[in-house]
Amino acid sequence: MIAVEEQDGIWTATIDRQAKANAVSEDMLVRLSEIAEAAARPGAARLLILTGAGKVFSAGADLAEMQTGLATSPSWERLSSAIASLPCLSIAALNGTVAGGAIGMTLACDFRVAAPGAEVFYPVMKRGFLPQPSDPARLTALVGPARARRVLLAGERLGAQTALDWGLYDRIAEPGALREAAMELADHALAATPEHVAAIKRMIP
């Protein structure tokens, strides 16, 4: 359910569980974390792209597993932390809607490129769960506190254009051009040494 492609230092991890709108299970979270942690090793990835198969990036937590504790699993934070601490560039290529806990892994990426239909919503208030510990701060850093409140407290659903206008998305591209858009954003980093990329990333809060 998690496919990984590695070519010339560019790693692409694809969530592929289309029958369940790419909802994420505990096992899938662990696998994604392992991929991000492996990508951080010296000489491994120079770029990590996270994407989904089909028309949805991810509907968030698997509903059946939410009843057994998935919503509060530490694996969500393990994944977000692994992505955020990557020395290489990380880009979320959002082929469609991203919802709930799946937002955390995208917030942890350096950039987010999205298809025109890639809506964002984080229904933690409605569901009765707290967001992942690091998500509010990362969301606020991107969109500001007032807009973060609208997402987390009011449950506002954002269309792709609004997410772009707010600074949550960096670019919008047609689904077939998402990888091209990601590669354009990564162009300078891929031309630099891994040490230079890591050094600049460390300078950005």
Short description:
The protein is of the alpha/beta class and 205 residues long. It contains ten helices and nine strands. α1 links the parallel β2 (10-15) and β3.
Output the CATH class name.
Alpha Beta
Q: Helicity, in percent?
A: 40-55%
Class from helix and strand fractions: alpha/beta
CATH-derived architecture: Alpha-Beta Complex
Order of helices and strands: EEHEEHHEEHEEHHHHEHH
Provide the residue-averaged pLDDT: 97
Low-confidence parts? none
The radius of gyration computed from the alpha-carbon positions, rounded to a whole number of angstroms, is 16 Å
Beginning-to-end CA distance, first to last residue: 33 Å
> What is the oligomeric state here?
single chain
Instruction: Let me know the number of strands.
Output: 9
Descriptive labels:
alpha/beta, 2-enoyl-CoA Hydratase, Chain A, domain 1, 6-stranded mixed beta sheet
Q: Would you kindly provide a written description of the structure presented here, covering whatever features stand out?
A:
This protein has about 200 residues and is α/β, with parallel strands linked by helices. It has a single domain, classed as Alpha-Beta Complex (2-enoyl-CoA Hydratase, Chain A, domain 1). It is about 40% helix and about 20% strand. It has 10 helices and 9 strands. It has helices at about 25-40, 65, 75-85, 100-105, 125, 135-145, 145-150, 160-165, 180-190, 195-205, and strands spanning about 1-5, 10-15, 45-50, 55-60, 90-95, 95-100, 110-115, 120, 170. The strands form 2 sheets. It has a 6-stranded mixed sheet, sandwiched between helices. Strand 1 (about 1-5) and strand 2 (about 10-15) form a beta hairpin. The longest helix has 14 residues, at about 25-40. The termini are far apart. The mean pLDDT is about 95.
